[in-house]
Amino acid sequence: MLGWLWPSSGFGDIGIFIGGLLGLVAGWGLQFAIRGEIAAGNEKLRKQMQEWFKAQAGVNGSAAATDAKPIDKAAMAAELARTIVSPVSPALPVLPASPVMPDAASQLQAAPPRQPAPIPAKREIVPAKPNVVELAIGAAKNWLLGGNTIVRVGLVILFIGLSFLASYAASAGLFPVEFRLAVVAAAGIALLAVGFGKRQAKPAFALALQGGGVAVIYLTVFAAFRLFDLIAPLPAFGLMIVVCALSCALALLQDSRGLAVAAFAGGFAVPLLLSTGGGSSVGLFSYYTLLNLAILFIAYKRSWRVLNIVGFVATFGVATTWGVLKYDPALYLSSQLFLIIFVLIYVTAAILYARNTPTKLGNAVDSTLMFGTALIGFGLQVGLVSQFKLGTAFSALGFAALYLVLATVLMRRGRQNYRLMIESMLVIGIGFVTLAVPLALDARWTSAVWALEGAGAFWVGMRQARWMPRAFGLLLQVVAGCAFLGGIDANVSTWPLANPMFIGAMLIALPALAIAWWLRSVLPHSDSTWAKAYAKVEALLGQPVYLYGFLFWYLAWILEAWRAVPGSEAGMAASPVFAAGTQQMLTMFALVASAWLSSLLGRKTGWAITGWPGRLTLLPLALVFIAQEWSDERVLYTPAWAIWLLALGLHFWMLYKNDTAPAASTGMLRLNRAMHVGSVWLLTLLLADCLWFGIDRAGLWQTSWAGVVLLVSAITVLLLLSVWAGKANRMTALSAFSWPRNPHAVAYYWHAALPLVLLVFAGALAMALFSSGHTEPLPYIPLLNPTDLTLALALGALLFWRRAVTAAQPLPVAAGWVPRKQTLLTLAALAFVAINTVWLRIVHHFFGVSWDASALFDSFVVQTGFAILWTLLALSLMLLAHRRVQRGLWLTGAGLLGLVVVKLLLVDLSNAGGAERIVTFIAVGILMLVVGYFAPLPPKAAVANPDPVEKTQA
User: Fold this and answer.
1) Coil, strand or helix at 311
2) Which of 178, 375, 516, 768 has a CA between 20 and 30 Å from the CA of residue 777?
3) Do 823 and 702 lie in a common domain?
4) Known PANTHER family for this protein (predicted)?
């Protein structure tokens, strides 16, 4: 309503919204305050009722013992009902018997006395910890709704009303500016005077009024200077200083931190409010020095943290802004002096706060002043000394000296009470020492020094059973590693193993490995809450720290393998020590050899984590093989073949040790099996690469010899697995075999072979369909060319593998489809496709038909050959079925013969007048007559005979 009725000249059309918002805030505050009072009264009443019931239970017990008249419960209920209406009633009296409701009273008297039912205890609910946003909202609520809410809301409304009044009066021109400002100032003085007068009767109300009065006077002086030019800068500055000093005096007199905060906030704002842009930095920071000394004096007397924070934020905030916008190197001496003074003041304030704030765990530490002063002060210091060489490094040492000296002094004076502060100062001092290293040295040596320092800090924390140095040491290891990685560059040096890159990586790896060694067992610590929480985390860090150190060990060898030597003359580019292919191979060998050394260490010491790298050596072998193929490098190149032999030897040696290690878990056994399976696939690719080496040397890349290489390699390995591992396909006889068939026979002939089976099948089908069989420089010979021979080998390998798996006892899991008839029929279909493509290649080479799908299909020579070939195949199947009395096999041949007839009618018949059509029809007809004579349909009783698949197996 007020917003709606307010003149529109002040706020236009938004007045109604402002009024609504103020009404909402007022209603919300009143609701909160009233509900809080009711809840407090009800809680007080509940406690009184519990005490009263306990007292009455004792009275009833004694009455029962002496046959006294029991209490009138109806009167008690009536009294309780009257009490609930007034939530702030005094303690409940003992209720007398009531003449109201006599029947009920007589019934109660006649009944035997009973003890009141116990009140069930409420289960304690632990509230969830509030987050940052909830804390901020709660702080705002506490300020607005805590204490005397109505007064605070009233002050807010009063400020808004004064603003409205000033705006309206200014727009209407009712009074001179001087008069308006005087009225506002008088209102502020009145608030200050009334509040000071009520300081004894109503302290909260009085302090709120005084804070509002100080703010009004500040704003009045500011408006008179800045907005209306009624006061010169120097008098305005003096008036604000006087207001600040009087406010501080009032705050100390009444022990009010809120009033002190308001006073100093205004005091720090004075130069900002009254600045014209041409003032002296010396004058500004001299004034701030006086304010900060006043805060330091108050900190000596009072533990007002919020006042310290206000001064800290204002001082360093203004100093940072001035440094960014106004600093000139000519002002270095004065700026450096004031920065030193401000840092010393707030470090001292942090110590005074700790002295004045004892807790059960020792004196409290203001983390904002302790760490904020160091961080912000050093940041400003960096800006000041950036013009000097090594200025930041010496500044870091200066800050380190300050905090370490203070820590030493506090240790001598009160080590137990200031333990947390001493540790904080030690952390800051060591941190600045650590920071000074990179500021004076490059990234490689910096990271090395940090890593050594971290290991030293961890060792000290381990010896002293302190968690903070150990945590700092671990953190420093991570920072050192990041710094080294960020500074990695081309390793150019004439010195092998004695260059900064190799030494820097090693100086990170070795301290990390030392810390991992110390973390093998549980380290001692104090019984504090923080120490126990850290101990739980530290117990999980032994393995990650070892792997971290191992990776940097490996990185050192990688950097050495990729080292370059400087050019022989000035201006010449550096040249690598090893060729690119050799660098890749050395990278692989470095990891495999490092994993081997780690495995040796693990077997000597029983340190389990050291065996982990040796279980994953297949990964670098495979990755380097891919990189070698991408770079057109071959396994049989020199010195690649030697490195491959060494790396594979170490790899299989570690496979053997991992399999024979005692107490291997199920997960480790599965991982070992996967490494065996992956090793078979890698050997398949290595064999193919060796064959490609021969193809490359013979210049046969454009022939079918190159196309069959991978398939031949897969066929060879599949045959070896079927024959070698297939012998161990019975679980009962597995113990008779040596490693690796025992215990990994199934992994070889099933898990490793299955992908090869799919590769051989798909590769054979693709080769049969797409390979033309070019054999240059040799002549093409049907069935004796690389394509046809490879297809025959593929079918043989698949049949051998099927026989080995089918005979397995027990059958591998998910291998139930292998013995089925459908699998054999699939292989028969592949053989049928292979036989047909043999004819296609014969036609291509001897009849001059282009190796193209459409040209081959349109050739009547091809169609005639297919008709005769299919008829011969059908005749063979039907003759075989007739001899074995296998009705199903005969029907298969008959189906193929029917397909020949359909093809004759749809395809061959279209060749009008062609000799091919004549030959086709005659040949097929004769063959069908032969079939009808020599291979008639077997009788149905033949169904009872053994399955052809089983007979084939026999």
Assistant:
1) helix
2) 768
3) yes
4) BLL2549 PROTEIN
Q: Give how many domains the chain has, as a whole number.
A: 4
Across the chain, what does the average pLDDT equal? 77
Same domain, 338 and 407: yes
- Is residue 432 within 8 A of residue 479, CB to CB? The reply is no
Rounded CA gap, 169 and 175, in Å? 7
DSSP 8-state assignment for residue 279 = -
End position of a domain, from candidates 89, 110, 131: 110
Q: Which of 860, 861, 859, 870 is nearest to 836 (CA)?
A: 870
Which of 406, 440, 474 delimits the end of a domain?
Answer: 440
For 281, other C-beta atoms within 10 Å of its C-beta total 17
Asked if 760 and 798 touch (Cβ cutoff 8 Å), the reply is yes
| pLDDT band with cut points at 50, 70 and 90 for residue 311 | confident
Q: 711 with 790: CB under 8 angstroms?
A: yes
Whether residues 876 and 823 share a domain: the answer is no
Q: Are 704 and 837 part of one and the same domain? A: yes
Domain that residue 944 falls in: 859-954
Nearest-angstrom CA–CA distance, 611 and 504 = 25
Per-residue pLDDT at 544 exceeds 90: yes
Residues with Cβ within 8 Å of residue 394, at least 6 apart in sequence = 385, 436
* Same domain? 673 vs 809: yes
Give the contacts of 546 (CB within 8 A, at least 6 positions apart): 512, 513, 516, 609, 610
* Of the candidate ranges 97-111, 155-169, 502-516, the one whose mean pLDDT is the lowest: 97-111
Q: Are 212 and 220 a contacting pair, CB within 8 Å?
A: no
741 and 887 both lie in a single domain: no
Q: Are residues 695 and 818 in the same domain?
A: yes
